[in-house]
Amino acid sequence: MDWTITETLDIGDRFDKHLARRLPEMSRSRLQDLIKEGHATLNGKAAKAGVALKSGDVVSITIPEVAEVEIKAQNIPLTILYEDADIVVLDKASGLVVHPAEGNPDGTLVNALLHHIEDLSGIGGEMRPGIVHRLDKDTSGCMVVAKNDTAHRRLTEAFSERRIAKIYLAVVNGVPKEEGGRIQNYIGRHAVDRKRMSILLDGAGKEAITEWKRLAVDQGCALIQCRLLTGRTHQIRVHMREALQCAILGDPIYAQPNKQRVRVPRLMLHAWKLSFNHPIHDQPMAFEAKVPAEFEPWMGKVE
């Protein structure tokens, strides 16, 4: 597509900002890639993203075909809570890795989604689902996935601006003294064990906020409801272990599962509820993932 710069609003504007305003359905990063790859040009020539537009400049942009990815589709069972043309909301099983990586080249949620989604339009020029947030391998529960660029960009913005409500359930080893509270600090990579995250007392790292409430007690362990106001790596696991001094049952990184009060077959962390406005039509949506059977001894005592 081609157009000529004539409007006062556009004259003097950066090339990349102009494209973002003209093509709001595309993410900034995608537009930057199109500029770098020469698919977006000025007066028939490649241009830098920051060049200022002049009256009479001709802007041309060609959207290349969506590229196939090397990740293979696999028929892995999924529990779908909701699906439309733009998003998929699912209940991720404990033990399922979200994205292929070293050590987990396949058998992941992304592999399963590539098999399941029939109307995927691509994310960032690649035929892949848009992962906008992650759950740890052993955490179960609600996740939302984008099926196109626009949904991906708007969901990413909603997470960044804390417009997504996320409520988790955790069973911890021991019983916190208080009935509830708010944990607010900074989390970053552990200084020695690089697989772990830790609360950083010097203010380094990223802000992490968790509101928590004790729901029930059984066998000397407590069921905790956690509302995440931020989404840091291992946030709940770190906050339970380091702030409340009660590690999550079955946590192989932040606890010693064989020395906890109750033996459990998994990490006792579940993304219970997820709510947000739909990224396209802005309709409020709320989802709840069925509480796993392993939580029942504690759920049965919730008043």
* Strand content range: 25-35%
Distance between the termini: 61 Å
Number of helices: 6
Question: What is the average per-residue confidence, as pLDDT, rounded to a whole number?
Answer: 89
Tell me which CATH architecture of the largest domain applies here: 2-Layer Sandwich
Low-confidence spans: none
- The topology string of helices and strands comes to EHHEEEEEHEEHEEEEEHEEH
What gyration radius follows from the Cα positions, in whole Å? Answer: 23 Å
Which class do the helix and strand fractions yield? alpha+beta
Write down the CATH topology of the largest domain. Pseudouridine synthase
How much helicity do the residues have? 10-25%
- Looking at CATH, the homologous superfamily of the largest domain is Pseudouridine synthase
Enzyme class: isomerase
InterPro entries: PsdUridine_synth_cat_dom_sf, PsdUridine_synth_RluA-like_CS, PsdUridine_synth_RluC/D, PsdUridine_synth_RsuA/RluA, RluA_PseudoU_synthase, S4_RNA-bd, S4_RNA-bd_sf
Catalytic activity: a uridine in RNA = a pseudouridine in RNA
Family: Belongs to the pseudouridine synthase RluA family.
Topology summary:
Blueprint: E1 2-4, H1 15-22, H2 28-36, E2 40-42, E3 45-46, E4 58-61, E5 79-83, E6 87-92, H3 109-116, E7 130-131, E8 140-146, H4 149-160, E9 165-173, E10 180-189, E11 197-199, E12 206-218, E13 221-228, H5 235-243, E14 269-277, E15 284-288, H6 296-299
Parallel strand pairs: 8-14
Antiparallel strand pairs: 1-4, 2-3, 2-4, 5-6, 6-8, 7-8, 9-13, 9-14, 10-11, 10-12, 12-13, 14-15
Helix pairs in contact: 1-2
